[in-house]
Design brief:
Layout (H helix, E strand, L loop, with lengths): L3 E2 L6 E6 L9 H10 L3 E8 L10 H18 L4 E7 L8 H14 L3 E4 L5 E2 L8 E2 L2 H17 L18 E5 L6 E4 L4 H9 L2 H7 L4 H13 L7 E8 L1
Parallel strand pairs: 1-9, 2-3, 2-5, 3-4, 5-8
Antiparallel strand pairs: 6-7, 8-10, 9-10
Length: 239
């Protein structure tokens, strides 16, 4: 089936990720395209990424990564960033995660919910072998799919104080290799690179290569289409 453009009949999106920097590894290019066209995009981070910086204690890493994420979001036009404060590296698929996500969906009231790829393994285009996907990513993705329905049902989590929200039209899951829907991000690659560069301390710990060089390589890998254009791909589900 030919790849289709992402639907545009929505106004507010909620992008849900496990850790600071997850959104910037590809999704931020699509976010920049959306906000530049007048869409309202919010970010929801399940954790503060406090276990993600080797040699940096969680009590120091958490606030630093949270601040980096807020700066990164601002680069692509996002001003609403919420952190659930769950434990980094310890997300568990189940009722507690679904409850937290459902409450957030009710607060942000999106028509589109977006999350990252959450399969068991992943491979960048043209790269072999596969890598094992993060346990947090796997747990979060399934939780997001379930929480969309939970957010609209007043009887599943009656303890939630937020009003039920049944307005989600679409759920989009990032897909790098064989997406059904794509967003044209050709004019927004530089913004995506700049957004990832805001995670400067994190990237400096990953590699001795210049941060800007690392970011450019990551974004090029995540958005380069087969025809030489640039796109970000999603598999789309109806809420």
């Amino acid at each position: 089936m030919p790849t289709q453009p992402m639907p545009a009949d929505w106004q507010r999106a909620l992008v849900v990720a496990a850790h600071p920097d997850d959104i910037e590894y590809g999704l931020a290019a699509a976010v920049a395209a959306w906000t530049s066209s007048g869409k309202d995009v919010h970010y929801l981070l399940a954790t503060r990424g406090e276990a993600g910086m080797a040699g940096v204690p969680p009590e120091e890493a958490g606030p630093q990564r949270e601040e980096e994420e807020r700066r990164s979001a601002a680069v692509v036009g996002v001003t609403e960033v919420e952190f659930l404060g769950l434990r980094d590296g310890q997300l568990v698929e189940g009722l507690d995660l679904r409850r937290a996500l459902a409450g957030a969906i009710r607060r942000h009231r999106p028509e589109l919910v977006v999350t990252g790829y959450f399969g068991a393994t992943w491979s960048p285009p043209g790269v072999s072998p596969s890598y094992v996907n993060s346990a947090d990513h796997r747990a979060l993705g399934q939780g997001v799919l379930d929480a969309v329905a939970d957010a609209g049902n007043e009887w599943i989590f009656p303890e939630l104080t937020e009003e039920p929200w049944r307005g989600v039209q679409y759920i989009a899951v990032q897909e790098m290799t064989d997406p059904a829907h794509v967003v044209d991000v050709a004019e927004h690659v530089d913004a995506a690179v700049a957004s990832l560069c805001e995670h400067r301390r994190y990237l400096e710990l990953l590699s001795k290569d210049p941060v800007e060089e690392q970011a450019r390589q990551v974004i090029d890998m995540g958005t380069l289409a087969e025809d030489g254009g640039r796109r970000v791909g999603f598999n789309l589900y109806w809420g």
